[in-house]
Design a protein that fits this description.
45% helix, binds magnesium ion, binds 3-methylbut-3-enyl trihydrogen diphosphate, 224 residues, 7 helices
């Protein structure tokens, strides 16, 4: 049985679920939060130590302004409502991505990270304004500026994910088989599961099914 320490998830399909069920993409984003709550609970029960959730990509700025504003308001309210609960559950929150939002949101994110920084049951890495290519370019620029050797260890040091082990398992919901600029470096040996269900319809049983399949995979890392 493979140990499972780090799960990364591309939470895709909110918009389609919203259109299908409530005639509104934003309603799908709201419903998706129920799945977030449930996945956090199950991850703790499964003794997973790192859960990385892709919430907003550097490319998602291309979306209509109305949807972007709604998404960030939803995130702000979710954090305000949940931060004490997350803290009580001994969950550590870390943001991966470039924090260049409104002062209000930047401060909220920073204070949530600070408040939970000593927690140890589960670390949630929330990928916000995250893009893998710009993350790598940024790391290489720092190495060049510092005149440091370009090697794996030094690149890791300057990624948003520094200090976090690579994901063992990547799940993408929403019936779309691509990575969309998510953790391209860190996923080099992750087991990847593409799930047909849309994020708001992804249930605990679906998550457990994938975890059980993952545990039985033979992970070779190039060996035989
Ligand atoms: C993922 O769901 C959530 C974000 C990107 C914020 P989508 O909004 O991409 O949903 P679909 O893929 O359009 O259904
Ligand atoms: C990836 O989903 C980003 C998030 C889930 C936050 P997208 O829906 O933005 O991906 P593409 O654009 O279909 O590749
Ligand atoms: Mg999508």
């Amino acid at each position: 049985m493979n140990p499972l320490k780090h799960v990364a998830i591309i939470m895709d399909g909110n918009g389609r679920w919203g259109i299908k069920n409530k005639n509104s993409r934003n309603a799908g984003h709201k419903q998706g939060l129920t799945t977030v709550d449930q996945v956090i609970k199950t991850s703790i029960k499964q003794k997973i130590k790192f859960l990385t959730l892709f919430a907003f990509s550097t490319e998602n700025w291309k979306r209509p302004k109305k949807e972007i504003i709604y998404l960030f308001r939803l995130l702000e309210n979710f954090l305000k409502k949940r931060i004490n609960y997350l803290h009580k559950q001994n969950i550590k929150l870390r943001i991966i991505g470039v924090k260049n939002f409104s002062n209000n949101l930047n401060n909220l994110l920073k204070s949530a990270e600070k408040k939970t920084s000593k927690n140890s049951v589960l670390q949630i890495n929330l990928a916000l304004n995250y893009g893998s290519k710009s993350e790598l370019i940024n790391a290489l620029k720092i190495l060049k500026k510092n005149n440091e050797v370009i090697n794996e260890k030094n690149i890791n040091k300057y990624l948003h994910t520094s200090g976090i082990p690579d994901p063992d398992l990547l799940i993408r919901t929403g019936n779309t088989n691509r990575l969309s600029n998510f953790l391209l470096w860190q996923l080099s040996y992750s087991e990847i599961f593409f799930e047909k269900k849309l994020w708001p319809e992804f249930k605990e049983s679906d998550y457990l099914k994938i975890i059980n399949k993952f545990k039985k995979v033979k992970r070779n890392y190039g060996n035989i």
